[in-house]
Amino acid sequence: MSTSILNQPYTLNQDQLDFYKQNAFIKIKEVLPPEVLAHFNRVISARVDELNTQTKELKDRDTYGKAFLQIFNLWRQDPEIKKLMFSKRLAQLAADLMEVDGVRMYHDQALFKEGGGGITPWHADQYYWPLSTDRVITVWIPLQAVPSEMGPLEFAAGSQDILTGRDLSISDESETLIGEKLRVTDCLKISEPFNVGEVSFHSGWIFHRAGPNTTDETRKVMTSIYMDKDMLLKKPENDGQINDWETWCPGVEIGKVIDSHLNPILFER
């Protein structure tokens, strides 16, 4: 099966670019065709089954553990998955939305919310990242349609400028405290199903969550995090950022461009 579309351009219109600039997220339809997603669903599912180390039953896990199975940097585990993660189509979209001249890989992760899995609490991803600017973006690629019952992403549109809650990891506390803050702001909360081929992009500081998966099927999602090709490593501010420095930016010095062997340039103008 041909995966050539992964390296073909996808042109955004000005309304889409403006929407992202204002709201720090966007959903885009028909980015990938159903047959390509079905192929990667099979490949990625097999690798997740192979690499998953979670042995506890759902009822015995904490809130984070109930939210999803999480497997990192599959691009290094499988050459077929690398084709998707290194897609110039996706990387170009990331660069266009962030208005940068090129993007590097930060890392990828499979996020599989099992049938009966719980909520993903309100959080901002960049809490975990030792990155010097907000020019970082996550593409969320469902490997099948995601109806409301399976727990699609919910975004607090325009919340990227809210400082309250940025110091919280994904937890019951973040769900409560960020949720309370958002209730007294005018940020519109948007939670919509994803069609097959529809993907979303969101910035590092936008608050987002996902509802529970109330179906019997696993919600299978692959994600990749892209950063400005000139992104500098900042001094870590918490244990999560120290771990990310050691894991995803090995050997990079504070204040230097994050250009380790794990951070190749995926798109450049």
Automatic annotation (TrEMBL):
Protein name: Phytanoyl-CoA dioxygenase family protein
Matches recorded under InterPro entries: Phytyl_CoA_dOase-like
Originating species: Flagellimonas algicola
Keywords in alphabetical order: Dioxygenase, Oxidoreductase
GO molecular function, one term: dioxygenase activity
Cofactor(s) required, per the database record: Fe(2+)
Pfam families found in the cross-reference section: PhyH
